[in-house]
Structure formats: C-alpha cells, structure tokens
Amino acid sequence: MQPIRVEGITKSYGQHQALRGVTFEASRGEIVGIIGPDGAGKTTLFRILATLLTPDAGTALVDGFDTVRQYRDIRLRVGYMPGRFSLYPDLTVEENLRLFASVFGATIEKNYDLIKDIYVQLEPFRTRRAAALSGGMKQKLALCCALIHKPSVLLLDEPTTGVDPVSRKEFWAMLARLKAQGITILVSTPYMDEASLCDRIALMRDGRFLTIDTPEAIRASFGRGLWSARASDMPALLRDIREWEGTESCFAFGDVHHLTVGPGREIRQLEAFLRAKGHADVNIRAIDPSIEDCYMQLEKRQRP
Hints:
The longest helix has 16 residues, at 165-180. Strand 12 (247-253) and strand 13 form a beta hairpin. This protein is 35% helix and 27% strand. It contains 11 helices and 14 strands. It has 304 residues and is α/β, with parallel strands linked by helices.
C-alpha cells in the first residue's frame, strides 16, 4: 500500500480549473517535490490530500484511506504545513506545541524523540511568542507542530519561501532525517536547488504534471546540447540570439542566457552572426542542463 496514491484528480473554482487529471504515487520514506509557478495547482493538491478540500473527480488515498469518505482517519496520519505561517502568534513556542499535541491526544514528552533534533534549536526560545520568532525559527516551530502527533505522511507547501539560505539548508537536513525514519514527504518549492534534494520531482503547469521522475532522469531527458552565453550588452545579446534563424530556444538565467540550437546548426555560426551584430566580447560555452532548463523545455513543448 502506497502512503500517497492519487488518480485522475480534478478541481475547479468556478471557471478556473486548478487540477486537470493529476495522477501519481509516493512510496514509504520518499521525498517527492512538486515544482511549478504560482497558479500551477500545487496548493490545491496539498489541500485535497490534507482533507481540507474535496476533488470534483478522481480519488486520493493517504495510507489507503479515501480523502473524502475517511478524512477523520487521514487527519490522524498526516502532518500539514501550509505556505503561510498558521500558528498562534500570541502563544509562546511551547504553548503552540502543547496545543497542537493536545488536539491529537499526544504530548511533547511522548513524541519528543521525533522532534528533538528540531526542538533543541527552539528550546532557548520556548517562552517567546511565535510572532517574535525569526522566519527560520517560525518554520522550525511549524514543522514541530506538524510532526508532534507522529504522522506517517508530511505535506509541506513551500516551507522555505522567504527563509534565509542557512535556515533553508538546515530545514532540508531535518527532512533527510525524517525520511530516514520512514516518513513520506510531499513538498512544493520554488527553489531549483531544493528540487535536486528530492527523490523524485513532479514538474507542474496549469493543473497538470508535465513529468514526474528522479532529478537525474529529468536532467538526462533534456536530450540536446545546452549553451551558456554572456556579453557586455545582455539585453541586446538576448534579442539577437533569438533573432538568429538557427536558435531553437533562448532564456535569461540570472546573469547569463541559456540557449539551444536547431538540428544541423553549429555554435560557431551563431558566434559569427553575433559578431556581425556588433558583439565583440561574446562568451559561449557548453553546460549541463538544470532542472529549471528541463522545466522550460517541457513547458514550451507542451504549450498549446
């Protein structure tokens, strides 16, 4: 029995279709990342699995229980951490944790082993109100509250958005330890470096999964040469690369442009074209594709 099993889930809000036949499974002790822009349907999927929304069609099972008919059983087995900080800001760290434990008939002492690696960092602030915590500490407290009833499935909706890089690294180290304890983790993130830490990744757009596979398999599926280009006038470089008839795709990636060329085309032809356009300092080199490159390629390929 898979901890998460979703088959043909659809969900609409009026005329807007948020989910369009999503199907996937997650195994015990697996971290599955959901990657996609705002409006892709990630939060709707999480809320259905957390039994906060009902799907229009399809089925979603958590530990074998149906999210519609057996939602009470699921709520005892799922830990849910929404994108926004949802704890009580006027309660202290310890008061929040004891409150959430009591809701599930648990105690901090009973399940302390599950959260101790995280809570030891919070204990010096246990009498501080949640509203006065830093962003990273708020996320650690929210994770403790999601874990205190010893769930078998953990749903994390963009848990590190707005958190500093050091806290993000610490947070993912915690997830690795939870995975080692057999907890299944479904996590959405806008950070591509975090996506590479997942066992599998689902790339999502407009309520659909473009693909779901391991990070390595997704990168390997890029299937063509990828190049990085840089020059002193980057806006003009982007425009001129896109103008060249041999360019297949070209996107701005930070302080460089990533591009692919069509069959039978060579980079030296592009370099000659750019020199003729007045770019005397162009630097083009071959690079390995990232998860973001693969997402852009799949999104373009499946665009109507």
